[in-house]
């Protein structure tokens, strides 16, 4: 089912955006709301991404609810899609937003390298986990 | 603005606002009473919406907004986002069309559907541009400064903030009587872009607050605009996604039980 993938990926992206907003901006206050080095283009993409993320989180869940009333949820497939969406966004955020566009850094006043490494490695792990889960479910479908 | 103000925009303005608010409530209530199947909670929503608009234009909160940028932003959220949302979901236009004599209501709805102005105005993109574009003009030009010394500008800007917010919410949600309907993805895309515009503008205010606003006040006001806007926008997103969900349900019921006709 295509909808498993869409629902999972959208929810994964949205989940990451919300985690970023709640944990890194609000609770830890590591990310800065506005870094004086931010370019106009950085503000533009950040605004677009965050608002898309909110929409993705909500719409992903409604897609999930719609899926649930139609068919039995294939949990591994859906979880794999969530990992794929979350990991993809995390990697994009870590490389494009933090490094290329310099919207803000993960944390200020510390050596940033370990934070960047942890951030991006976690993203890659999520992506690989998602890919494995999706791959396994596609094999099991062929076997059936 | 740190210097002391003479009362602005003055008692006359505040009384006018209250009179308009009370009139709107009375008209809605009279129409509600005549309808046998109009739920009471919609009158509650309408009342909440009108009260939100009134307290943001008259009374202590409104007076405080002239000297305090953070309160100004609270008012901006109340008047431009929360009040329109509450009023739109109370479906005043549907109620109006139901209350009018049938012939008049029909003529009005045909006129609205055919009118070229309405067609131009009633586009999601137009709503978003009037709404967010107006805010860009207000905060990024000298308009914000001038608004506090000219009564005409003050009235026009506040009217615009409310009406543009109303038009945008009305077009995006489509819960009330509408001249035209747009697909879910069309409305969702415009909503995402408008939300992004709101976020971008609040960061621009953070970086470069309007003239006469201190840096801390500008930063706090901008962050309030950013996160407060998020709350209302998430409500809008949930509402339109729920509409999508219900519309999907309808297609399944039709597929499963094909109508005998």
UniProtKB/TrEMBL annotation, chain A:
The chain crosses the membrane at residues 7-28, 40-63, 75-92, 112-134. The keyword Transmembrane applies. It comes from the Bacteria. Keywords: Membrane, Transmembrane, Transmembrane helix. This is Membrane protein. It comes from Jeotgalibacillus alimentarius.
TrEMBL record, chain B:
It holds the Pfam family Caa3_CtaG. It is found in: Cell membrane. Keywords: Cell membrane, Membrane, Transmembrane, Transmembrane helix. The keyword Transmembrane helix applies. InterPro entries: Caa3_assmbl_CtaG-rel. It is a multi-pass membrane protein. One of its GO terms (cellular component) is plasma membrane. The chain crosses the membrane at residues 12-31, 43-63, 69-97, 117-139, 151-173, 185-206, 226-245. This is Cytochrome c oxidase assembly protein.
């Amino acid at each position: 089912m295509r909808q498993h993938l869409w629902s999972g990926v959208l929810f994964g992206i949205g989940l990451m955006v919300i985690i970023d907003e709640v944990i890194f901006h609000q609770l830890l206050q590591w990310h800065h709301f506005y870094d004086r080095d931010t370019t106009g283009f950085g503000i533009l993409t950040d605004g677009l991404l965050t608002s898309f993320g909110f929409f993705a989180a909500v719409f992903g869940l409604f897609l999930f609810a719609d899926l649930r009333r139609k068919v039995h949820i294939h949990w591994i497939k859906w979880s794999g899609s969530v990992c794929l969406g979350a990991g993809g966004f995390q990697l994009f955020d870590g490389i494009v937003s933090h490094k290329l566009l310099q919207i803000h850094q993960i944390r200020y006043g510390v050596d940033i390298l370990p934070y960047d490494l942890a951030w991006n490695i976690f993203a890659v792990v999520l992506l690989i986990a998602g890919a494995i889960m999706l791959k396994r479910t596609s094999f099991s479908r062929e076997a059936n | 603005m740190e210097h002391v103000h003479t009362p602005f925009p003055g008692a006359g303005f505040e009384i006018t606002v209250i009179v308009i608010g009370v009139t709107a409530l009375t008209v809605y209530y009279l129409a509600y009473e005549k309808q046998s199947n109009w739920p009471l909670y919609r009158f509650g929503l309408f009342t909440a919406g009108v009260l939100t608009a009134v307290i943001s234009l008259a009374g202590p909160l409104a007076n405080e907004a002239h000297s305090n940028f953070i309160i100004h932003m609270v008012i901006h959220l109340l008047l431009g986002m929360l009040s329109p949302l509450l009023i739109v979901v109370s479906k005043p236009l549907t109620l109006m069309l139901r209350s009018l004599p049938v012939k008049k209501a029909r003529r009005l709805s045909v006129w609205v559907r055919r009118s070229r102005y309405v067609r131009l105005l009633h586009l999601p993109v137009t709503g978003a541009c009037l709404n967010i574009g107006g805010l860009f003009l207000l905060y990024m030009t000298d308009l914000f400064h001038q608004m506090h010394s000219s009564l005409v500008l003050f009235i026009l800007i506040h009217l615009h903030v409310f009406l543009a917010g109303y038009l945008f919410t009305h077009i995006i949600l489509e819960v009330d009587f509408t001249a035209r309907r747009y697909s879910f993805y069309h409305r969702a895309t415009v909503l995402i872009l408008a939300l992004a515009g709101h976020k971008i503008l609040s960061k621009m205010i953070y970086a470069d607050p309007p003239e006469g606003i201190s840096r801390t006040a500008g930063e706090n006001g901008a962050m309030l605009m950013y996160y407060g806007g998020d709350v209302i926008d998430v409500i809008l997103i949930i509402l339109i996604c729920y509409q999508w969900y219900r519309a999907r349900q309808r297609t399944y019921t039709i597929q499963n039980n094909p109508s005998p006709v």
